[in-house]
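Hi R.,

Here's the input for the 2-acetamido-2-deoxy-beta-D-glucopyranose complex you asked about:
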Amino acid sequence: MRCIFLLCLLVSAGFSATLKGDKIERKIVAEKALHQARNPIDDVIRDALELVRQLMLNGTDSTPVLDPFFIEYLLVNFESQDADLLLQVDNTWVTHMAEFIIENISTNMVRLTMELALSLPNFNIDGHYAMDGMIMNLFPLYGSGNYYIHVFDVSLGGGAGLSVGVPPQIRDLHLDFTFQSLEVKFENLLGGGSLETVIETAINALAKDVVDAVWAIINEPFCQLIEDTINQALANMGGEGTDSPALADSKEVGNANAYLDEVLAELRQVLYQTPGVDPKTLPDAYTEISGGHAAIYNGWLIGLSSIHRSADATLDYAGRFITFNGSAGYTNMQAGYRVQVEVWGTGPDAEAFALIRSVDFFFSFKIDAITGAVTVNDFNIYNIGQIDIEINGLAPFDWAFESIAELIIKTIKDDLSQTISTVILELLRQVVEGNPPPPPPAAEILKIAF
Ligand SMILES: *[C@@H]1O[C@H](CO)[C@@H](O)[C@H](O)[C@H]1NC(C)=O
Ligand SMILES: *[C@@H]1O[C@H](CO)[C@@H](O)[C@H](O)[C@H]1NC(C)=O
Ligand SMILES: *[C@@H]1O[C@H](CO)[C@@H](O)[C@H](O)[C@H]1NC(C)=O
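And here is the predicted structure with 2-acetamido-2-deoxy-beta-D-glucopyranose in place:
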């Protein structure tokens, strides 16, 4: 996020030279970057997590049974301002861990991350304890017997790295553990004088330490089980996908058209809101005609924000770099000029209108899937179509029409080429950078290798 935003700012600095008063609505671009298309592998991961639930109950060759999870022995040394306690627990069972709810799964094929949010309404820790210690350095507090700690409203949030290889895999999964409340009971706890509130506070804090210690023990096999199960599911994704010829040859042209349409919709907004683009002023120009000269001035061009897709677009996912090719352009843009003709010291002020029937350009962008950076691979304006010119008020110098029309056409063409290859292309590049492409179709993921 930060990286992309910085890039925008850098670009804008270099930009104001071309574009007076450049004030692009970067906020829109930045916010849109947060939006991610739904990823097909999210579903695979969701199913894998359902399987994790069962494997927690059954255990696997490499993971012990996690629900119920047995802890033979645990020692917790608790020290605070008011209490100094040594707690030993044994024969402890942790139950209901498998009852987690999948709140959110979000894989990002551009950032190569998987984010995961689970919740657990409740889980229980039950066992036997022995405690010995002092309250306020004065009163002994001790006991042994059964204890339980019930933990409520647990959130498990975290993430993993994603490598888009064959097969795609997640790695380094970590989960952070938080909870809302505890219910605690230690049977046969004796002593402590009459300092009930102090004891209660100390026991609650001690119980929290026990919960953290228990999570620290379960965390690793739990994450390992999730990681193994998801990776197994990703490896099986699409069955023996690669030797299915139908899948192997699929080119998602339609998908890229939808993506380019989305990008251009945003680009239209950006162009519309960028001062000096639509309408745009056109440069003055001048030509000799027999016996004098013609000058064109006060030129304007309307329509640069009406950009649309002009041919099929493609997204080629080949490892780290995604190639995004497409064509875009304009139809029926309008322009105009004031025309001043001067022959032998006299001449009319006329007005010219131009209809630019079509302009189309091709672009090829290289998108770095890791950094999100977008660079221009290739660009060319392959069509500037017919430009119709009409000049009113030229009489009696109608004979100069052709020279003036040629001047107008040349000036418009030069300015359009210049504007499209700098301003338009750069703003398009920025919008693509702010709107990462959709993930590759599931069948394609299998073929991608870094
Ligand atoms: C878990 O064990 C039960 C009973 O033995 C079995 O029916 C089920 O298929 C097992 N689940 C998995 C995922 O191994
Ligand atoms: C799921 O996670 C993504 C990425 O962190 C976030 O943008 C989205 O709002 C979350 N959705 C829900 C329903 O929490
Ligand atoms: C995209 O454009 C580049 C550069 O013109 C070209 O080399 C490449 O073959 C194109 N890719 C596709 C899928 O059309």
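One thing worth noting: The chain has two domains: 43-235, 251-445.

Cheers,
M.
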